[in-house]
Fold these 3 entries.
Entry 1:
Amino acid sequence: MKPASKFWRHLQRVERDFVGDRSAMAAVEFAFIVPLMLVTFFGTVEFSSGLASARKVTLTASALADLTSEMSSAGNIAPIVDSDLQNMFNASISIMNPYLQGGSTSVTAEIDEIYVDSNAKATYQWSRLATAGPSASQATLVSWPHNPGDPVPSLPSALLVKQTYVIVAQVSYTYKPTIDFGGLMSTAGVNLNDVAYSRPRQATCLVYNNTNPTPVNGACPTP
């Protein structure tokens, strides 16, 4: 056999072995695909956790509005005091667990009673705000965000029924992602909030702490 023929046969065999050996190609493909797979996996986990947090915020607002509207009445009026509100805040905010346990953000909740007068003008009767920090088991009453008689900036038109009372519950929570993803998700977090509406169910109105505005002859106060 001629040397040239042997050389070409050897070259063909080497070429065939090189083309048939795909182990290096698989390693390169794996190196390209793994980062994408990891980003997709952890991104899905974070997105799902964010959706669950948003759902919790909605449930918390709904529970807070329902608990407040179910206050037992004394005639035409249902009295409500700070201890009642404390219990309502504690019960509703507990829905946010486990997102408050070991986390880094707090949840803020607000309860308002609004009166719609004979001119369909909405004003605050009373208002109370509470917060619960990371790993907190109880809410803390912190302030009165609105004064009696302050105008309500916005209220759904369907609730503007003249000479009626509306219970409004608002909940806010900042969801912070666990992984930064190279700046794709804000480390400052995403603000999640929701509002729930209800009406007093066992009375015409709720009177906070028997203070101003004071009921007269058992009638619900109007600012």
Entry 2:
Amino acid sequence: MSQKLAYHGGDKTIPDPLPTFRNRSGRQIGEEEKEALIEVVESGSLAYICGTKVGEFEMEFAALVGTQHAVSTSSGTAAIHTAIIYLNPEPGDEIIVSPITDIGGVTPILSQLAIPVFVDIDPYDQNMDPAKIEASITSRTRAIIVTHIYGAPADMDPIMEIANRHSLFVIEDCAQAHQTHYKGRTVGSIGHMGCFSFQQSKHITTGDGGMVVSDRDEQFGRKLRECMDKGWPREGGSRDHLFLAPNYHMTELQAAVGLVQLKKLGEAVRLRRESASILDNRLSTVSEVRALKWHPGCVETRFCYVFTLNHNKLAVTGQEFAAALAAEGVDCFNGYPGNVPIYKYPVIKDHKTFGSSGWPFTLVESHGSINYEEEICPEAEKACRDSVVIWWNEGLTAEHANLIADAIDKVIANYRR
């Protein structure tokens, strides 16, 4: 007989809170970061244009990823926007993107009056399916944004082959994939540009912040740094503004924390992978669920732990399963970014963009007529409905992973057909 679920009034499998990315219990943050902040405060130089920490952080980050250049930004979303400003698309141009991503990977496209074109995922890892890209390429396609979701690398070789054949720019969204490797290469160094986030939940954090990396710092008639700095060529000594660009500066305070966090990144990734492997082993013989995988020769870094439900063996929806598991003490939710793909959120579905204009969708007739209520990416729709996403962090131990597995077993036992 199965144990009564906490969701229905039974005892919780995990009565005490698990380590979480939301506070120090799940983050490697301590005295070193405090000392770095004090140093910056005592210097009196808190802005990047006055201090040295931002420049140091950029240099060390570029060296870590293996690129020649790195430009810091105020967030991961700002990093993506900086990359698209650098690309300088025409209004109505198209940028291919995954429907399983954060809205921060899409709003920068809209902000430049370009149109996001959603290509379905491979359910194997929930990254963009390379086999489905070419059918979405048109004469207006300028770029592909490849999200390495959950810390697992997308299949980059075929993506780059398609991009090179069609002269498309490839932006890697590595917000969830710090030190993820694809066939011996660090993600962010494979495409033409890589974008990272240092938001609270990421493998390293500066609270908020981001980074754009590339082997070229000038292309499309623009310098990369100017694309996050008001189009301002500061090295010239004048106050020129060469093109429309926002102020996305990182502060010296953020960079100081980032420099310390970089020293802890390897250990954070190791701990995340170590504890997640325990859950891998526990779920490998459970036929009711399937943990996501990654391609051979690749190294994942476990931003989240994700599994999908086998409805042939479970009589429960993804929402119900996630709610029951959360009640047992597991920090989880149904589907990413939610239980519907990103294109079903009002900003895209209802064209909630620039006043009542509907831009950029209404700039091109065919895109203004797309009905986003339909399942335009059926695999993504299914993934959002059937996935359970567990927040992962470096504070989780083997004991915690086994407790999470016990909670999953309990929920399965209550919903097994």
Entry 3:
Amino acid sequence: MKIEKFEMMRMQCLYEKEVEFDLSETTVLPLRVSELLDGEDDVERFIANELYYPESEGSQLFRERIARFYMDCTPENITVTNGGSEANYVTLWTLLEPGGRLACMIPNYMQAWGLGCAYADGVDAFLLVMQKEAGQYRWTLDVEGLKRAVTPKTNVILITNPNNPTGAVLTAAEMDAVVDVARKAGAWLVVDEVYRGAEVQGGTTPSFWGRYEKVVITSGLSKAFGLGGLRTGWVVAPPKLIEELRVRLDYLTCTPSLLSDHLGTIVMEPQRRESILARTRHIIRKNLPPIEEWFLKRDDLFTYVRPEAGAFVYCEYKLPINSTELINRLRVEQSVLLTAGDQHGLDKGIRTGFGYDVEKTLKGLDRVEALMRSLK
């Protein structure tokens, strides 16, 4: 079986610790373990944990609390994984098959694209497209393109909502259109919702869970929760499919981390969960305005589209240079790391994270501008 290189992830793994300005991150300033534990009793209970193998599917209480993040969901609909990436991997490994095809939303994180090429007969793309509405640009779903991408061979449709890298959130009408296409095809609908809860405006994005009998949700604590170091994800699916996923997880990491399960259970207590998501939204809403102003003042270089969720901005640029070539030059010449449009299925665009130190982010962007102006 041939595996395509996961270009964006490989680049981040190689260089994110080597540059002065890492603007490739898509989450917010992470929480500390001490911020999750309340007082000495909590700390004592945590450090007194015996490091035995935990429940392979995640503890009952953790799964109960995850289930409360979704309507009409039970612990039997949940299995816990080591990160959202493993949730995506085991789901697509289970559902994709020779003779079938994956229909994949573009732009995207591109993990699914690589897995579709490996496990199915191929991948068909459907697009989010940039449109101008009421004087502002936004990303919208090309519904007709989705219908064309879903063929009689399609057995899985992959959506990322909120989207990475654009930060777009599907409207209710777009969500209905996706479900309608999936239902007519009889295809599984896999929705990566890992940025759900990190909205620029309003409350938590509605989930696809419960809208169709063949929906699978993947998510985790890395992005909207700012807890990537826990490496904790989950899959929400019909119980029969959950059992199939667990059979395959036996060949992977077998169980989640016991300590991460303990901390995840604390995080997903409903009141604590909403407090953490409120913190994330506060950081995003505080940091975005100066980043937005920076891009809008440089409209000779960029086409700015405001994200609807996530601590990142995706902008197309107006230069005759390939996006991977551009970010490699930025890394080598300016010690700035971004992700490239063609690492997300597009080109002539860059993704910039802004969830950490906003002043440092702006200094990094100034270096981006310096190189880009030298190329005009």
